[in-house]
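Lab meeting, item 3. Inverse folding demo.
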């Protein structure tokens, strides 16, 4: 059993309405505008899986570097994304890399037969790492689940982690270091009897403690990837 459970995803946006509409269609969710359009909430309506929620939050800083955390999605065909720039040629990999309306990279896995595309279309959350094994082992300790290792590509996948509503968290090696705040992160909820200090003991660090303005703690994993911690 893990120390936390997966709560939801958050995506930074320059234009929350436009980006929220795109990701609602892409993930098979509905969009609701909040805070005068500064925040867009994506959810599945009556779906009993609240961890499928995605928050699209307006931020002042633009995207400047390749996403270090990106989403992999299922689709019936690449024709669904005819208006999106293709960053890799179809057929080169098992997936095709495209760009969302703000230039954020994401990967599309086409499903055959198309009728088997599920209503909820998020497949993986992928994380670029300098040391993927270290990051994967941290999240296994924190979220629980089971690790699988693709030795050829040195990709570590965390499956069946607590509360995760998609197939896996995938940690892949890249040569470039992390330089800016991730535009995609996930939130977690502490398990009963677990404190923020317990996460620190496993290698996380506090970036901003809970205070009078925010009701959560902003932390970073051993690779520097931001995540937010909520109490139950």
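The presenter then showed the designed sequence:
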């Amino acid at each position: 059993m893990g120390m936390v459970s997966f709560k939801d995803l958050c995506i930074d946006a320059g234009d929350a309405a436009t980006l929220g509409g795109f990701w609602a269609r892409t993930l098979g969710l509905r969009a609701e505008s909040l805070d005068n359009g500064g925040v867009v909430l994506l959810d599945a309506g009556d779906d009993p899986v609240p961890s499928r929620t995605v928050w699209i939050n307006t931020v002042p800083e633009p995207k400047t570097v390749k996403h270090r955390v990106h989403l992999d999605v299922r689709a019936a065909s690449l024709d669904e994304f005819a208006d999106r720039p293709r960053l890799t040629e179809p057929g080169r990999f098992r997936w095709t890399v495209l760009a969302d309306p703000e230039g954020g990279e994401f990967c599309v896995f086409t499903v055959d037969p198309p009728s088997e595309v599920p209503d909820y279309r998020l497949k993986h959350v992928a994380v670029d790492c300098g040391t993927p094994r270290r990051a994967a082992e941290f999240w296994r300790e924190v979220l629980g689940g089971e690790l699988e290792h693709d030795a050829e590509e040195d990709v570590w996948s965390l499956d069946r982690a607590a509360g995760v509503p998609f197939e896996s968290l995938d940690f892949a090696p890249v040569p470039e270091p992390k330089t800016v705040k991730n535009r995609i992160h996930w939130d977690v909820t502490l398990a009963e009897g677990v404190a923020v200090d317990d996460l620190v003991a496993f290698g996380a660090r506090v970036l901003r403690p809970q205070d009078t303005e925010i009701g959560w703690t902003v932390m970073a994993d051993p690779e520097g990837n931001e995540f937010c911690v909520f109490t139950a």
